[in-house]
Amino acid sequence: MDRRRIMNDKFSIPQSLGRHLIHSANTAHFGYIIEQAMSFGQTIVETVFDLVENGFVGETEPIFDPEADNEVYRVDPEFHRDQRDSIELHSYRWAKQVDAGGTFKDKLKRISEATFDKFMLAKRSQIICHDLDVRRWALAAARRERCNQFKASPSWLRNFKIRHRIVSRKITKFVSRSDVQDREAIENAAIAFQLENTTVTEEIGLENTFNTDQSGCNYETHCGRTLDIAGERKVERVVKSKNATTHSFTIMPTMSGSGVLTTPLYIVMREPKCVFGPQVQQTLFSSPNLKKSYSESGKMGKKHLEEFITDVFVPKTGPKSCLVVDSWSTFTEANIQAAIPVEKKVKILQIPPGATGLIQPWDVWGFRIWKNYIKHIEDFVLLHDISIQLSQRNNCLKLQAIIHDQLRSPRYVNFFKYSWFKAGLTGIRPDHFSNPVRFAFHGTEVDCAICSHITMAKCSWCKLPLCATHFFENVHMCNNYIE
Ligand SMILES: [Zn+2]
Ligand SMILES: [Zn+2]
């Protein structure tokens, strides 16, 4: 079997089928998915479809990146089902051919890995790098592998970049050596923290290790972007309530290292007088999974921290636990310890300043999904012209209560565990997990299971597709878990 032909064939798959397969544009992704499946060494077609249908490539990296602008990672699952037979045929033929040329494939894999290592080294050292550098590194690796037929061609480069999601970016800031050294210091502190945390959790167990963080929310969140005709200078858009885009409240969820989202959710509402009138009190939305508090700014102060520790955190902990928090000025060890009763021991691990975005579970993964979930509900309400004012205080509370309940589903235990893994605070990579946003909003169900109106979201517990009335307005709190 001609090896060149194998490679050609390999890349002709996305070209011949990819157009139909990948929902948006970038056909080469299917090649990537197949390649991942191959490296798993399982029955190729089964794995491919597993990965595609579950929204995963590689191990636990979702194809669907909720924050990525590029829709190219999104795959149309409906289409796949229809096309299954023809793909199976192609994949089978291709798998057989690659089997025949295994050694060349192995070499290519090693070349690709070595090149990527070089690239990451350059990135970490903040060295500017271009296409030619990547090709140069690849050729050097090929020489080491004695792989003379490898030319680091532009098409190889293109695939390499797609596979590793490498794009050309405008440099946003030029930094000097000393900035880089600062960053190195932060990274070193982060690594030291990861090690310390791992030691502590080995002693007291992941189920006794918690991470909490506050996140500011607007009454109505919008991404601040819209489609418009290119070149328009003035881009003004309608939001349901103009005040709502700036006035905020704070949520403070807590997750354990064993993947449990604890209840209740602590939430601080903005209330200028810090107290609600009797009428508001009466009509204020409440739910067992929300612990509400108020402040003038909607932000948390020392009083709120104490309340959180005493009423929300401590009741959930055993005699010995560990709390990972970021280096927010109110979160001083003394402030936290003061609120903890004597019979409980809580070790406070404070993330080094500047390293929050690198190693805090809520930051690296949890909040992204939380906010993306909210955005999907908001978009649904606008798109279908549903008469729910999400910027109203009560609806805001309702939305937070629902999302908190939804994310508590056992379906997402691995999702939260993954946050710890991604933050480098545990070396244990969780098994496959569902992406909450994908599960809730990207299903194929159209009609509400109760009234047959259009589905707003699929419940992460009972799996029922539900409309705005049955999911949101009637507050679908669920504990009927169906796997
Ligand atoms: Zn319904
Ligand atoms: Zn349900």
Hetero groups: zinc ion
* Fraction of residues in H or I helices: 40-55%
What composes the largest sheet? 4 strands, mixed
- The number of helices is 17
Domain Transposase Tc5 C-terminal: 420-478
Organism: Frankliniella fusca
Pfam family, one: Transp_Tc5_C
Protein name: Jerky protein homolog-like
Structure characterization notes:
This protein is α/β, with parallel strands linked by helices and 483 residues long. 48% of the residues lie in helices and 11% in strands. It has 17 helices and twelve strands. The strands form four sheets. The chain has a four-stranded mixed β-sheet with strand order 6-3-9-10. Strands 4-5-7-8 form a four-stranded mixed β-sheet. Strand 9 (320-325), helix 11 (333-338) and strand 10 form a beta-alpha-beta unit. Helix 1 crosses helix 2 and helix 1 packs antiparallel against helix 4. The longest helix has 28 residues, at 177-204. It is globular, with a radius of gyration of 25 Å. Residues 1-29, 39-47 and 49-102 have low confidence and may be disordered. One zinc ion is lined by residues 459, 461-462, 464, 476, 478, 480. One zinc ion binds at residues 459, 461-462, 464, 476, 478, 480.
